[in-house]
Design goal:
Layout: H1 2-15, E1 21-24, E2 30-35, E3 44-49, E4 55-60, H2 64-77, E5 84-86, E6 91-93, E7 97-100, E8 102-103, E9 106-107, H3 108-111, E10 112-113, E11 116-117, E12 120-121, H4 122-125, E13 127-138, E14 144-155, E15 164-168, H5 171-183
Antiparallel strand pairs: 1-2, 2-3, 4-14, 5-6, 6-13, 7-13, 8-9, 10-15, 11-12, 13-14, 14-15
Amino acid sequence: MPRLVYLTMLALVGCATSQQRTLPSAGGRTHAMVPTATTGPAQTEDIVLHDEPGIVAEAISAPLDSAWAQLRATYSDLNMPTNAMDAASHTIGTGPTVAHGSFAGAHLSALIDCGYSMNGNKADLYTVRLNVRTQVVPNAGGGTIVKTLIEATAHDEGSSTDPVACSTTGRLGQRIAKTLAARLK
């Protein structure tokens, strides 16, 4: 699934008009400013292309030290536990967490893709074990890159089947970056 998203993003960037501009950023990632409106006022979407599967990377304009200082409070704003923190790498995380149906104020199916069963979306129906980690790193073009990784599995506790691996939809990483940026304004 992440490869499909990556390839789709490459296709989108490749098909964009000449108004697209790319900006270098930390860790070999590239930002692509892609036009989103064909009529009316010009609008762009900042898409971060990267080579780290499963990691959502979003750019914010705040300096690294300010972003790091507010990251724990951002997790709190989203009702996410903070059980892991490494100041040296500017990384914070939930640690192993169990969720049923919702997490961080959203349906799990909005945040992760675990597939479907006969009864519906596994992310919403099964017990989900997840570990969320967010790292802030300097952006070579200024500001900060907010990188979020979600590792998750879903398991039907009423069956003897193995847990299924889940992938991120990208929405939680986007929410974390947006909430952090709002705290810094």
